[in-house]
Structure formats: C-alpha cells, structure tokens
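Design job #97: recover the sequence.
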C-alpha cells in the first residue's frame, strides 16, 4: 500500500491508513473505540489522530449524547482521499492475492481472524 500512497503523493503511515479505513466504514467512533479495535494503546492513538487532524483528514467533535466524549469523523478532504485511494488499494490487494484460490484465501482469513482473537485476549 505504501507504493500506492507514494504514487499519489500521500504521506500517511499504515497505522493512520487503518484508522481512516475504520472511520470510512463507521463514522463517529471514539478515540477509545479506535484504540481498542486497532490494538493500539491510547497515547499512540492520540498521536496518530493528532497527525491526521493536522493533515485535515479527520475532525473531532463532541458526542451530542455525552459531552464528555469526543467522536472522530473523516473530514470532507479525508472522505475524498479515501474515495480516491480505495479503488487503487483494492487493485493492489488483488495483485497481492494473485495465484491463490478462493479456498486458500478463505483459510488464510480464518487463521488471521483466530490470531487476532487470540491477541485480543492475551
């Protein structure tokens, strides 16, 4: 994916990319939810979100139901960037799995899901 980002002149880390994908999939997540889902610790997630906010790719807003919480959203610029990059990333992933059968890919995904489950419960 780094190659795709570099070709598009976009300077984001893999960790930042995963946060942007999560926000593209589900807007309005708290910092804690992003940290828990992405296996990052809270200080690290704060640093990543600060950088994304400086790049104007995300926005932090008060939760309308609980003013003590802050929710994170993609900005308009962040949404445009995701819409530009996702097709390129999907094409790159397609090349990555070239030569694997659907069964092999499904088995790999199952094993990775088990590893993720185990990691979450360590």
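Job complete. Output follows.
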């Amino acid at each position: 994916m780094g190659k795709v980002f570099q070709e598009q002149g976009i300077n984001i880390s893999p960790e930042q990319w995963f946060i942007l994908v999560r926000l593209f999939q589900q807007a309005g997540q708290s910092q804690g939810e992003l940290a828990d889902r992405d296996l990052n610790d809270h200080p690290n997630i704060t640093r990543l979100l600060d950088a994304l906010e400086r790049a104007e790719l995300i926005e932090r807003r008060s939760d309308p139901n609980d003013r003590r919480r802050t929710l994170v959203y993609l900005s308009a610029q962040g949404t445009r960037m995701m819409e530009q990059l996702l097709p390129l990333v999907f094409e790159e992933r397609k090349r990555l799995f070239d030569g694997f059968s659907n069964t092999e890919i499904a088995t790999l995904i199952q094993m990775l899901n088990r590893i993720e489950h185990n990691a979450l419960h360590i």
